[in-house]
Amino acid sequence: MIGEERLYAGIRESTAKLAGIVTDEDETRPIPTCPDWTLKQLATHVGRGQRWAAEIVTRRSAEFIAYRDVPDGRLPSDPALRPQWLNGGASGLIDAVRAGSSDQVWTLTGMGQAGFWARRMAHETAVHLADAELAVGRDIELAADLAADGIDEWLGFATGDPGEQPLPLRDEGQTLHVHATDEELDGAGEWLVRRTQSGLAVEPGHAKADVAVRGPAAKLFFVLLRRLPPTEPGIEVLGDVDLFGYWLENTRF
Q1: pTM of whole model > 0.85?
Q2: 39, 99 in Cβ contact below 8 A?
Q3: Residues ≥6 apart with Cβ < 8 Å to 159
Q4: Is residue 121 domain-resident?
């Protein structure tokens, strides 16, 4: 896991880029990777989500807070005010987490430190920035350290309580290896996921697996989050390709 200051920088950068797209592009443009959403709805979701997380931390809430109870949760009707609104949501979130980083609050996985929300919103915002960039035909980019941390978080979610979803590895003993090849990660971008008798387990490091997926961390992250196809140039899927397709089909968030 990377430091909170790096996560804050990621939140600010992704939000500012999204604000620029919202300013420059038609708000009614559809978002193919988020069916039924327009660019306006995507921007509203990001700004409201950041305010929602900030509200949880500010209140030190031990319970889920309804989105309708979040102050200032509407994207301004005046396009000129939208960048300020989006960037303000990012700043408010960062200020809230800085003030209560180690305090216990409600999170998506139970009670945990408020710093959970810096990590969650850094990666949430990066993914939705990619949604907007793909919708308007721009290249998507993400620093390798942020992307690798996003993969680590995502694999943690995937190996948690699946709820009503089937486990994304079909049979006990099956394995998936994820390998981010960026040199600057210095070997820290590898994970092995294994289906066990009790569920899924993930551990860092290199290992042989039934299926391996490898490539630059940013592309890997967006493939795992179903924003890019596994056939994306630079991505290799080695071994049981069908098993990786099954993984993707059963890891929706």
Answers
A1: yes
A2: no
A3: 193, 199, 200, 201, 202
A4: yes
Q: Cβ neighbours of residue 129 under 8 Å, at least 6 residues apart? A: 14, 15, 17, 18, 21, 140
Task: State the average pLDDT for the chain.
Answer: 95
Query: Are 117 and 31 in the same domain?
Result: yes
Q: Residue 163: is its pLDDT beyond 90?
A: no
User: Is residue 241 in some structural domain?
Assistant: yes
- Domain extent, residue 214, equals 161-249
pLDDT at 5: 97
CB 66 within 8 A of CB 170: no
SS3 content of the chain, % helix, strand, coil (to 5): 50, 15, 35
40 and 84, same domain (yes or no) = yes
Whole-number Cα distances in Å, 188 to 5, 17, 84: 19, 28, 36
Q: Report CA Rg, the chain.
A: 18
Antiparallel, parallel or unpaired: β 211-215 and 175-180 = parallel
Longest Cα separation, the chain? 55
Torsion sign across C-alpha atoms 148, 2, 114, 192:
positive
Phi first, then psi: what are they for 22, rounded to 5°? -60, -35
What is the number of domains present in the chain?
2
pLDDT of residue 158: 84
The interaxial angle of helices 39-59 and 4-24, nearest 10 deg, is 150
- Best CA proximity match to 220, nearest among 250, 191, 186, 184: 191
Q: Which residues pair with 190 in a beta bridge?
A: 179
What stretch of H or E contains 215?
Answer: strand 211-215
Nearest residue to 64 via CA among 101, 106, 16, 30: 106
